[in-house]
């Protein structure tokens, strides 16, 4: 989940809880205020009736235009002693004007006159249906709440997006960064202190990474270059010894094995040196190269080698496909992919080379998939063939990185497929 979505979701949950609590508290506060107003009105009306009873004056007529109704009846001293003299409650009360019972707020007062007679006075005023009020308030709270929530979330999202834009710019830059390639200038100029510190830390990390990569490539290049001369001298001396007439058959066999091992070391050294040159961008010159012609030339030149293992190449190529790149690297790319297919294709099998709409696909039969995450790593070997250095596909990957060409491996329907998009 994106950080932006996570923050908005958590804020939405917090707002839902807070506004729900606010709605409940608002409802009960409003109910309490309405009840207090009703109680004050009842107290005033009850005081008017009690004063008229005590003064012997005429009582108000029911249905005199007031919403209030009352009941006055004498009670015994025992009843008065066992009941509170002032109480409030809600009940259904007969409304004289309407002749029906409706919800009402009722005040009950017990008092006595000068003769010691006790009376119970009930005064009621019509009130609201709580369920209806609750439903109305709930509807409006939900409507206002949803609207307010959407507005608040929209504002929060806008503020977050504007303030987190430098972070997303840094992430996009980091995702596009490729070690060994000259990086673009770091984005993310901002007044936010944390993002400035992150940008500076990332800049230092990239500089350290590039420096270490440059030193590593320089070391490999220097070592490979310095090894060429001693390897050549050793090879010449072994060949001189192999031509000696004084060698026994066993000694000649051992020298031959040593010579083959040395040749493999020479190939490995040259390949590492080529990889270092590619990583150091030492192939600046580019020209128009016909990829189709390179494929046809390689298959034609090494056709007899393929036929010796019974490997048949089926081609599906256009008349021409020209790309602008270094010719030597283009040959390295094509030759290593086809050679890899030849080495690992089963005997008496069919390999396929296809080039359509700038996408080259080379496939061969296989039993199980290779490790797609490491197949282009240096010294990765899927087989135990001694002739393989484990650097062929690493060279292909290095050329593709240099020219920013997508390179993919897949295993479908019993075939290994290597795809390059020019």
Q: How is this structure best described in words?
A:
This protein has three domains: 3-133, no CATH class; 193-279, Helix Hairpins, CATH 1.10.287; 287-421, Histidine kinase-like ATPase, C-terminal domain (Heat Shock Protein 90). With 422 residues, the protein is α+β, with helices and mostly antiparallel strands. Strands 6-8-9-11-10 form a five-stranded mixed sheet, covered by helices on one side. Strands 1-4-3-2 form a four-stranded antiparallel sheet. A two-stranded antiparallel sheet has the order 5-7. The protein is built from nine helices and eleven strands.
Keywords:
Helix Hairpins, alpha+beta, 9 helices, Heat Shock Protein 90, 4-stranded antiparallel sheet, 5-stranded mixed sheet
Outline:
This protein is an alpha+beta fold and 422 residues long. It is 55% helix and 19% strand. The protein folds into 3 domains: 3-133, no CATH class; 193-279, Orthogonal Bundle (Helix Hairpins), CATH 1.10.287; 287-421, Heat Shock Protein 90 (2-Layer Sandwich).
